Every structure is written in structure tokens, then in C-alpha cells.
Inverse folding.
């Protein structure tokens, strides 16, 4: 699918060489969400997601995270409402996590770190025809961020965890079908924070309407441990590096306001 054009992804700056700073970028992500400073906005509507599990295509290791990709050539997987004026199409989802359960998320809530964070990446299909176009525009992307906590086993996640050993190395891809992204959403998606920011890995473009869920999902310790069995490196490389701590350092708020959909 469009999501898998490696050219964009492979030009990315290796995370472990430290975060690439973007000169002049003042709407960068991730950020800390200071709950008391968030402004309740009663105009924020409930989010409306409609995902079709049949459009799930593949799961692959891009050397930063693992991505589950969807066919984004039709409006089968849509997100609208919330802070969004237009309709957005799901393109892929992926995660960020730490080497231990003590850290790993990109966003924090009152400086609280979570062991991992899920990102569902969507692009504005009302105004653009491809992700590559939308990624350059201020209203081009919408990413839902969901925190993961270690607790009970997540039944929906297990199918994805079972596929990871097949994509241990960078650039490995396997077919992955009939996975419902809605199974990863928390029960309450009406309570969220939203702000304007950027992609957290190159191209780091400031084209993202971030929608960070207040309610986390729970996964088991063992499920999260399998994430850490992935490798940043490809099969050919002599030194294998565990794929852990694939999160970006937090960025200054630079006067932005974080809005909340709840009081
Ligand atoms: N951590 S993040 O901010 O959610 C984040 C960061 C960087 C990203 O690059 C892409 N690229 C595509 O999906 C893609 C889609 C179509 C063609 C090429 C790439 N999605 C991203 C999400
Ligand atoms: Zn991400």
C-alpha cells in the first residue's frame, strides 16, 4: 500500500543516534500533557471511527517500530468528528515502547510515563489523494495516541504478538489479514486531549492533529516482552540491536494550547 513506500521511511534518521532536531519547528511532538492547563472545549465532538478488518494487509518491521498496514486506496477505514473538520483514512498503526515497563510512551500525562503508546495514523482523504501529499499539510494527518499499561492480557493484541517473531529483523514483512484496529481502542474514546503537532520520527512534519486518549488499554507483561524481541537491525548486519526505547524526546509546547473533550 502507499504506507509501505520504503523510500520515505528508509531515509529516516536512526532513532538510536539521538532525535533529529528540526530547526525552527515550533509545533513538534511528543509533549507532556499538563492536565490542569488543558482547556475544555465543548465544541469538540465525539470521535467516529469506522474500520474494516478485511482491509488489513501486512505487518512489517521498518527499523523503527512494527507497522500494521491497511489498504488506504478507498474510504473503508475512516475517522471523523472530534476536533476534525474533514474525513481521514487509516493508513497504519504502530507502537513505541521502552526497554523496561518504567518508560516507553512518547506523550506523558502530568509527566507520567507509560510503558508503551499506540499510534493510529490517518490522512485527510477529503482534501488529498495520497499520504505523501497530506504529510506536508497542516491539516493533513490525524494520529490517535493510546497509552498502554501492563496488566491483564489483551485478547485482541495476541494475534499481532504471534506475528512478531516472523518480522524480527528490519525490512521483514509478512501478510497479516482480518485484524480489527477497533479491538485496540479503549472502551471510552469520548475523553481525549487534542493539540496540533508533528510526526515524532522523520519527516517530523507539523501536519498532525494529535488525539490522545485519556483511557489507556492494558496488555500483559509477556505480550509487551515480545515487542522487545524485535530488532532495529536487518538480518545481514553483524551486530543485532534490540528494538527498544523507540520514542522521541519530548518537545517544547511553544505556547500551544492542549484542549480536552472532557471536564
Ligand atoms: N510516530 S508518528 O508521529 O505517529 C509517525 C511518524 C512518522 C511517520 O511516517 C509515516 N509514514 C507513513 O505512514 C507513510 C504513508 C505513506 C507513504 C509513506 C509513509 N507515518 C508516521 C507516523
Ligand atoms: Zn508513532
Amino acid at each position: 500500500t502507499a504506507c509501505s513506500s520504503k523510500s520515505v521511511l528508509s531515509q529516516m534518521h536512526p532513532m538510536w543516534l539521538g532525535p533529529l532536531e528540526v530547526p525552527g519547528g515550533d509545533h513538534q511532538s511528543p509533549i507532556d500533557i499538563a492536565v490542569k492547563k488543558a482547556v475544555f472545549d465543548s465544541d469538540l465532538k465525539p470521535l467516529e471511527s469506522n474500520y474494516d478488518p478485511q482491509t488489513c494487509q501486512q505487518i512489517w518491521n521498518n527499523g523503527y517500530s512494527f507497522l500494521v498496514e491497511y489498504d488506504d486506496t478507498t474510504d473503508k477505514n475512516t475517522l471523523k468528528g472530534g476536533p476534525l473538520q474533514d474525513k481521514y483514512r487509516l493508513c497504519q498503526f504502530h507502537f513505541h515502547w521502552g526497554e523496561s515497563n518504567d518508560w516507553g510512551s512518547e506523550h506523558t500525562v502530568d509527566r507520567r510515563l507509560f510503558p508503551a503508546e499506540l499510534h493510529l495514523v490517518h490522512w485527510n482523504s477529503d482534501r488529498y489523494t495520497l499520504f505523501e501529499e497530506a504529510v506536508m499539510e497542516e491539516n493533513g494527518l490525524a494520529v490517535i495516541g493510546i497509552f498502554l499499561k501492563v496488566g491483564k492480557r489483551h485478547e485482541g493484541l495476541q494475534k499481532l504478538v504471534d506475528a512478531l517473531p516472523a518480522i524480527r529483523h528490519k525490512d521483514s514483512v509478512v501478510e497479516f489479514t482480518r485484524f480489527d484496529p477497533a479491538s485496540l481502542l479503549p472502551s471510552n474514546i469520548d475523553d481525549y486531549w487534542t493539540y496540533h503537532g508533528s510526526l515524532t520520527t522523520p519527516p517530523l512534519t507539523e501536519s498532525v492533529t494529535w488525539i490522545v486518549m485519556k483511557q489507556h488499554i492494558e496488555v500483559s507483561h509477556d505480550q509487551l516482552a515480545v515487542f522487545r524481541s524485535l530488532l532495529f537491525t536487518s538480518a545481514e548486519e553483524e551486530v543485532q540491536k534490540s528494538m527498544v526505547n523507540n520514542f522521541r524526546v519530548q518537545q517544547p509546547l511553544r505556547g500551544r494550547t492542549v484542549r480536552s473533550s472532557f471536564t
The two ends are 40 Å apart (CA to CA). Residues 94, 96, 119, 200 surround zinc ion (ligand 2) (CB under 6 Å). Residues 52 and 77 are 6 Å apart (CA to CA). Confidence is low (pLDDT under 50) at residues 1-12.
